[in-house]
Specification:
Keywords: Cytoplasm, NADP, Oxidoreductase, RNA-binding. GO terms for molecular function: oxidoreductase activity. The protein is an alpha/beta fold. The N and C termini lie close together (11 Å).
């Protein structure tokens, strides 16, 4: 089978499309014929060799955590799924023609494989950081980097829970944020004052890692009210870095329910072929994404 792999840490150029042996489902796992794989910042962070305790890496390594496809192998002890079922979920080395998933859910009706591949890690992360920052109805969180996949999910989940969000993003994405129910403003000089002009900030989420931790702490008045998923130096300021996933099966079930009710939609900004994995990583690292990027197999 074809698979994207890297044998050394480095830039996008270390990625190679190789011929590899097919993986097989172990106990409690399924294998899918991959139709699409989600492109997440954690993918290029791992490729660069960043120290991420939740994702220890042995070289050579495959790439990718999220995927959608058709079940073609079922491991021992797995029930509730059959060969041929369309599913989306999280596993390992998903930039490939076949991948093993450890967590999955049936794809909601009307969702394409490309769309479905963009949800698993994104929704799990969104649910986790909302929980960790402790925001609740009647409070206003600030989301820095709100137009990407996780930000899009946070805004919609918060709206579903009756939580008003302030979101920052580039000028081109202001209407997008407002369409998701956020009070929106732009990055750049004076952004913190613009946020203050929109209202009180009770908590903050750093989703982009753009060097804004100091300002987020100032806006909230307490580093314990700030959570980052993108700045590995955040703990130096007393801010929690959130990098360990919670229950992916629970997140997938909630995602499927929200999607089925029309309460969650994350657009696919751009799709790439397996041969374009390096370009997908470069674009993801550059930021300014509206929604998700995916690899189509």
């Amino acid at each position: 089978m074809k698979k994207v792999s890297f044998a050394e840490f480095g830039g996008p150029d270390v990625l190679r499309l190789i011929d590899a042996e097919e993986p097989h489902a172990g106990p409690g796992e399924i294998r899918i014929s991959v139709r699409a794989a989600g492109v997440n910042p954690v993918d290029w962070r791992i490729r660069e060799g960043q120290v991420l305790g939740a994702h220890p890496t042995e070289l050579p390594s495959g790439v990718g955590l999220d995927a959608a496809g058709v079940v073609d192998e079922i491991g021992e002890g797995v029930g509730g799924v059959e060969i041929g079922d369309p599913v989306f979920g999280e596993g390992a080395s998903t930039y490939a023609e076949f991948a093993v998933l450890g967590a999955w859910a049936r794809m909601p009706e009307g969702l394409t494989f490309e769309e479905a591949a963009g949800y698993p890690s994104v929704v799990e992360t969104a649910l986790r950081v909302i929980r960790e920052v402790g925001v609740r109805t009647g409070q206003t969180p600030l989301v820095s980097g709100a137009s990407g996949g996780v930000g899009s999910a946070v805004l919609q989940i918060a709206r579903e829970r009756g939580i008003q969000v302030i979101g920052t993003a580039g000028a081109a994405n202001q209407d997008y944020l407002r369409g998701l129910g956020a009070l929106a403003t732009t990055y750049g000089e004076g952004w913190a004052e613009r946020v203050r002009g929109l209202g009180r900030v009770d908590a903050a989420l750093d989703l982009a890692g753009s060097g804004v931790i100091r300002e987020l702490v100032q806006l909230t008045g307490d580093p314990q009210k700030v959570v980052s998923i993108a700045d590995l130096d955040a703990p130096e300021s007393g801010v929690r870095f959130s990098g360990v996933a919670g229950s992916v099966p629970d997140a997938l079930a909630e995602a499927a329910a929200l999607i089925s009710r029309g309460r969650l939609h994350i657009p696919v900004e751009k799709s790439y072929a397996l041969t374009e994995a390096a370009a997908a990583h470069a674009d993801s690292r550059a930021g300014h994404t509206r929604g998700r990027r995916v690899i189509v197999v």
